[in-house]
Write a structure and sequence with these properties.
One of its GO terms (cellular component) is mitochondrion. The chain is an alpha+beta fold. The chain contains 5 helices and 10 strands, in the order ααββαβαββββαβββ. The longest helix has 23 residues.
């Protein structure tokens, strides 16, 4: 603060008051000047006890520095390719009436990704249920508002015609994801995730290369690419 400026201003005010009041008002003007100076000195002494923060506005018209922009990012769930622990043979498919005319999907095309959250949830379920073979079965069925829909359920039963995907290391048994050959043809390359939300937690299928992306808001029904 410029103390000289305020002292000079107080003197000018006192002189102006003196001219207005005449000789009898001179003493009052002097007292006014002294009073103004004393009040200002006290204010300066009070303010000096407090440290002025950086970038604090001390005069009218002082500009604050621009606030830096905040950048927000959404990190997708960590995923990694699952290991194909079991693949059916042609004899296995022919022995199953439901898939007797289904062709085997080559091992290099039979791929799924399983996120850390999904793998951890399956392991927790296995421990809680004391079932070393509990797995997540993923089915693709006709229906829904877009032609196809996902069905996910826990199972301890696996058929010879099933594909089994696991995330190493497995604990204990073969906890993983089970898919039949027809469903795998519509799911290969997808990601299996476990999401926790306010409305509930559930397993779900994400990033399906066979889907157009024009799916239902519920994430269950989807449309097949042409």
């Amino acid at each position: 603060m410029d103390t000289n400026y305020y002292h000079a201003r107080s003197s000018r005010v006192a002189k102006a008051v003196s001219r207005k009041l005449g000789a009898n008002g001179t003493s009052r003007a002097v007292r006014l000047n002294e009073s103004s100076t004393t009040m200002f000195s006290r204010a300066v002494a009070t303010c000096s006890r407090f440290a002025v923060r950086p970038y604090t506005v001390t005069r009218i018209g002082t500009r604050l520095p621009p606030v830096p922009l905040r950048h927000f990012s959404c990190t997708p769930p960590f995923r990694s390719p699952a290991v194909l622990a079991h693949a059916p043979t042609q004899a296995d498919l022919e022995a199953d009436d439901e898939f007797s005319e289904t062709e085997i999907i080559p091992a290099e095309e039979a791929t799924l990704d399983i996120t850390d959250a999904a793998a951890e949830q399956l392991r927790n379920i296995s421990v809680r249920e004391q079932d070393e073979n509990v797995s997540l079965r993923v089915l693709v069925e006709s229906g829904g508002c877009h032609g196809y829909q996902y069905k996910l359920e826990l199972t301890s039963k696996r058929e010879p015609s099933d594909y089994l995907f696991v995330r190493p290391p497995t604990t204990p048994g073969r906890v993983g994801v089970v898919v039949d050959p027809v469903s795998l043809g519509l799911l290969k390359g997808s990601t299996i995730d476990f999401a926790t939300e306010l409305i509930g937690s559930s397993f779900r299928v994400q990033s399906n290369p066979q889907a157009t992306g024009k799916g239902c808001g519920c994430g269950v029904s989807w449309e097949l690419k042409e």
